[in-house]
Design goal:
Keywords: Hydrolase, Metal-binding. The structure is a single chain. The chain is globular. By secondary structure, the chain is α/β, with parallel strands linked by helices. Helix content is about 30%, strand content about 15%. The protein has an eight-stranded parallel beta sheet with strand order 2-1-3-8-7-4-5-6, with helices on both faces. It starts with 11 loop residues before the first helix and ends with a helix.
Length: about 325
C-alpha cells in the first residue's frame, strides 16, 4: 500500500476488510473512525476496541467534553498512514483494532449512565479485548475501573492529570468528574499503594496514599527520573492508564474544561507514555477533550496521539 492508494480507498471505516494494517485514504475525506479502523460491534478476535463515551455532566468550568470522541476521531485521520514514530514496530499491523463506536445512553437519564458504562466496558473485556476509551468527562473512569476490577481485581492506576480527583465524596448517587479516584479507592477497585498521579498542580489535602508526581517535579527532575519512580510504585501489577488532557499545559491543550497553567508539555507526555513500554496494560482512556474551546484542534490532536500511544503500549508486550 502507498499514498497513491488514496485514489481508490475511501470510507475505510466501513469498507476495509483486514482489520490490521495502515490506511491511505485522504485525511480530509471519508468516514472518520479512529485511525480509520473498521466500525464494528462484533468483538470476535479483536485485540483492542476503541470506544467513545460522549458524556459530560457537572464539569468545573467549561462543558463540551461530550464532543471529545468525535473530535479525537477526526484528528486521528492524520495518523494511520505510518507506524507511530519511535516505537520500532507497527501496532496496527500487529493488533486487530476496531472502532467499537459510541456507547448509547439517554442524556435525560443521567443516573443510569455509570451502570451503562460499566456494562459496556464489561462486554469489551469479556470478549478478550483491551478497551481504549475516548471521553467524556473524567467521571466515566470510575465505572470503567469497576468493570476492570470485577474481572482482574484491584488494579494499579497511572493517572495523568492536573487534579488528583480524590476530593471527599461519600454520596453514591453523585456523578462527579473530580471525585472518581476517591470513590475508586474507597470501593477497593484501585490499589492506591500501587498507583501514581502525574502532572498534578492543584492542592488537595488527602490523596489517599496515591504517589503524587506533580508537574513541577517532572519539570525539575526530568522524564527518566519520573519514569523510574512510576515503575517503582507500579511494579509488575496490571495497570490501567487514565489521561486527563488537562495534564498538559493550556499552551498545548487549551480545549479542556479545567485548564491549569504550569502543566506538562506535549513532548514530556509523549516521552512518559513511551517510557511506560513493558507495563501490563489492561486498558486506558483519554478524557476531558473539549473542542469548543480550541478552534485550532490542537487538544483533539493531543488526545488522538494519547489514544494511539495506549494502543502501542498494549501491543508492546505482545510483539
Amino acid at each position: 500500500m502507498a499514498l497513491e492508494d488514496a485514489g481508490k480507498q475511501v470510507d475505510q471505516a466501513f469498507t476495509r476488510g483486514d482489520p490490521r494494517g495502515p490506511s491511505f485514504e485522504n485525511a480530509f475525506g471519508g468516514a472518520t473512525s479512529f485511525l480509520r479502523r473498521r466500525y464494528s460491534k462484533d468483538l470476535s478476535g479483536v485485540d483492542v476496541a476503541v470506544t467513545g463515551i460522549p458524556f459530560d455532566q457537572a464539569v468545573t468550568h467549561r462543558p463540551g467534553t461530550r464532543f471529545g470522541p468525535r473530535a479525537i476521531r477526526e484528528a486521528s485521520t492524520l495518523q494511520p498512514y505510518d507506524p507511530p514514530y519511535g516505537w520500532g514496530y507497527d501496532p496496527l499491523a500487529l493488533l486487530s483494532v476496531i472502532d467499537h463506536g459510541d456507547m448509547a445512553f439517554d442524556y435525560a437519564n443521567v443516573r443510569e449512565v455509570p451502570a451503562r458504562i460499566e456494562a459496556h466496558l464489561g462486554a469489551i473485556l469479556d470478549a478478550g479485548a483491551a478497551p481504549v476509551t475516548l471521553g467524556g468527562d473524567h467521571s466515566i473512569t470510575l465505572p470503567i475501573l469497576r468493570a476492570v476490577a470485577a474481572r482482574r481485581g484491584p488494579v494499579a492506576l497511572i493517572q495523568f492529570d492536573a487534579h488528583s480527583d480524590t476530593w471527599v465524596d461519600d454520596d453514591p448517587d453523585r456523578i462527579d468528574h473530580g471525585t472518581f479516584l476517591y470513590k475508586a479507592i474507597r470501593e477497593g477497585v484501585v490499589d492506591a499503594g500501587a498507583s501514581v498521579s502525574i502532572g498534578i498542580r492543584t492542592e488537595n489535602p488527602d490523596t489517599l496514599g496515591v504517589t503524587i508526581l506533580d508537574a513541577a517535579g517532572v519539570h525539575r527532575d526530568g522524564v527518566e527520573a519520573t519514569l523510574g519512580r512510576i515503575r517503582a510504585v507500579v511494579g509488575s501489577r496490571p495497570v490501567y492508564v487514565t489521561f486527563d488532557i488537562d495534564a498538559l499545559d493550556p499552551a498545548f491543550a487549551p480545549g479542556t474544561g479545567t485548564p491549569v497553567w504550569g502543566g506538562l508539555a506535549s513532548w514530556q507526555a509523549a516521552a512518559l507514555l513511551r517510557g511506560l513500554a513493558g507495563v501490563d496494560l489492561i486498558g486506558g482512556d483519554v478524557v476531558e477533550v473539549s473542542p469548543p474551546y480550541d478552534t485550532t484542534g490542537a487538544t483533539a490532536i493531543a488526545g488522538a496521539h494519547v489514544a494511539t500511544e495506549l494502543i502501542a503500549l498494549y501491543g508492546w508486550t505482545r510483539r
